[in-house]
Amino acid sequence: MNIASLTTQTPVRPAASKPMKEVDFSYNPQDQVVLDPGTTRVKVGDDLSNGKIQLVGGLQPNLEGSYVYDRHDARFHGANAFAAVAKTQALFEEAYGQPIAWATGKPQLEVHADNGNVLNAFYSRDDGGLFFFHSTDPVTQRVVHGADSGEVTGHECGHAILDAIRPGYMSSWSGDAGGFHESFGDVVAMLVSLQDPRVLDKVAEQTGGDMKKPNMAAALGEELGITINHTAGKNATGGDYTRNAINHFTWKKPSSLPHTAPPEQLSTEPHSWSRLWTGAVYDVFSDMVQQNLAGQPNVAAAISQAANELLGMYGRLMKMAPKGSFTYKQMAAAFIQSDLELNQGKRAGQLSKAFAARKILEPKEFRADSSAPENSRTQSVFLSNDATHNFGVFAGARVETDVSDRFPQAAEDLKDRLAVLVAAGEIKYTEPGQKLTQQDLIKSNGAPYTGVVRWFDGEMTIERVKILS
Length: 469
Ligand SMILES: [Zn+2]
Hints:
The chain has 469 residues and is an alpha/beta fold. Helices cover 37% and strands 15% of the residues. The chain has helices at residues 3-9, 75-96, 150-165, 175-193, 197-207, 222-232, 270-295, 299-320, 328-342, 348-357, 411-423, and strands at 20-27, 38-45, 53-55, 109-112, 121-124, 129-132, 134-136, 143-145, 219-220, 243-244, 376-382, 398-404, 427-428, 451-456, 459-464, 467-468.
């Protein structure tokens, strides 16, 4: 489904307007292990909704009538999740320059702050919202809540925002579309955390303006990452974080990479693969901070200015980004194109340089493309076994993907990608007529499946699972 069909067939209307007022909320733009919670002001109604975001279950205000709580108060999770998601949505909508209608088809994105015991967090289109959980760290015995982290909540909200603007990406089987979705969540979460004066001061102190030095903004989801490593009994993430924007990965042909790999290597698993795109964008951010410092000596101000500018660049990118399946190379070209057309090419040279250094684009490969706006269409393939593919129980299934006229994905590429996902256990088999709950679509390791079998008139099809972690 795309936005056009949502707006023409199922009008999305704002929730009935209720009186709203500015209230203080507990808010941690970062993670509990690196920053103590602070507060922020959010405009909200008594039902903990602002017309775009709804905290499921609401919250009992404190004695002063605000939503500021001790971090050990159970209400803290909901307050932080609501405030962080509301901020992320508002900031990105401003950067994008127009209202966003959720791909869920509902006017409000539901926020479930504590949905049970799972070591993960999700955006689920079909369930209409964001789901956060808790888990006990086996080493520290602390109960860790995803909702307490501005970065974890910002990342999941990033998935919802990207799905709203480009719903075709969640139907795509392309590894690059999956990687871009993960990177988008990380980049948006990082840029939102850099709106906070306390984070800016701390990052300025940690880096002195050299953004290649380790810092709390580049390190994403520290508390969740530490808990993942403690639970795995090994360094599964590469350090005391879930992911880090500071890296040196360069593009490799995806078919030459494993589906999973240790954290120091790239794999085609979307969270791993996302680090390549994030690293390239972070290089541009780092350059922008250096340039800003040449004009004025205040490090926090230089970082803040670059973060705001990059948020604007992402807003413009989403005006021109491919609509269906795409490769990183095509998205990089769209990024440069958006800068040339909508920003007088101010950052086009730096973008080209960064993507070339990461081998996503060849040096000087990019040429401005003034072709007509793309149309996207649906392409079907049937998974038939042959000399190079064995689909096992999934043989004979039909698979669909959105492809663009400008960026078509070959049917053979799609078969190759499905073969990798089948071999990696990423496709959930179901019987005809089987009813599925959200939990059925989650693997035993807490991550969602990539695809699921659905039957239509006796025909097996494999659909993308519309849940991202
Ligand atoms: Zn994600």
